[in-house]
Amino acid sequence: MADMRLVVVGASGRMGRTLIRAVTETEGTMLSGAIERAGSPDIGRDAGEIAGIDKLGVQITDDALSAFAHADGVLDFTVPAATVHFAELAAQARIVHVVGTTGCSAAEDAKLSAAARHAVLVKSGNMSLGVNLLAQLVREAARALGPEYDVEIVEMHHRAKVDAPSGTALLLGQAAAEGRRVDLSAHSVRSRDGHTGPRRMGDIGFATLRGGTVVGDHMVVLAGPHERIELTHRAEDRSIFARGAVKAALWGMGRKPGLYSMADVLGLSPKA
User: Fold this and answer.
1) pLDDT of 199-257, one tens digit each?
2) How far apart are CA 7 and CA 124, in angstroms?
3) Distance between CA atoms of 214 and 145, rounded to whole angstroms?
4) Active site residue: 85, 111, 118, 161, which one?
5) Distant-in-sequence, close-in-space partners of 201: CB < 8 Å, separation ≥ 6
């Protein structure tokens, strides 16, 4: 069976370079394209050279349409507006689109859902096995303990991260909401300042920290009467996300069009 041909978009970025290396290291996949924005100084350079490995014979280009036409899937950790554009192209090409982009608005998510009617789209706030296992634990803990246990989610990332709370924090908050069978948007508290009054029972709080070069730390605190449970995940290298994304692409090959999550890929979905 031929290797799955994958395109990496945002190829020159930190995550793009990590994805290129992950594709070359994964059996059953090959890099067929590498995309950067128009005007990037890396256009025309070899993708392997950019990623710090041997040359791969794949030049970085800004022509996503042509690259997608000769691919089986695309790995996308870019920005919301670019991801929506790539989703439209992937839907036209009927190829697997793996999305690790965070910070999408409701309108942008709706456009991704529309694209998923025509192709497989796997979207997750975090592609790592550990985080998705953590989400399952949070879901079960929230269900078992009930609203008497206050849920607080604390996350920290590097100083360059532009969206908050992180996609992973929102994924964990959604898991807690699902465990309680409530709507996260109606119970989410994103900031506290000044005289806020007592904490409302059932709220799911978020605290955001930024600094240094932290890859990603997340802690879910369930604080109840006279006891506290803390569930923690610390990402030590971006390669865990890249390996998960490649795994998701391979999983999506041959499946029916639809919007899937990393929990589906790992068999952890509550729908399963």
Assistant:
1) 999 999 999 999 999 999 999 999 999 999 999 999 999 899 999 999 999 999 999 99
2) 18
3) 31
4) 161
5) 147, 148, 150
Q: Report which residue type is found at 214.
A: V
Q: Does 157 participate in catalysis according to the annotation?
A: yes
The phi and psi torsions of 221 (rounded to 5 degrees) equal: -105, 125
Q: b/e for 94-116, b at 16 or more Cβ within 10 A?
A: ebbbbbbbbbbeeebeebbeebb
- 197 conformational bin, left if phi > 0, alpha if psi -120 to 50, beta if neither: left
| Strands of the sheet with 4-9, listed across from one edge | 60-61, 29-35, 4-9, 73-76, 96-99, 120-123, 258-260
What is the reported pTM? 0.84
Catalytic residue among 97, 123, 157, 233: 157
**195: annotated active-site residue:** no
- For 233-247, the pLDDT digits (tens) are 999 998 999 999 999
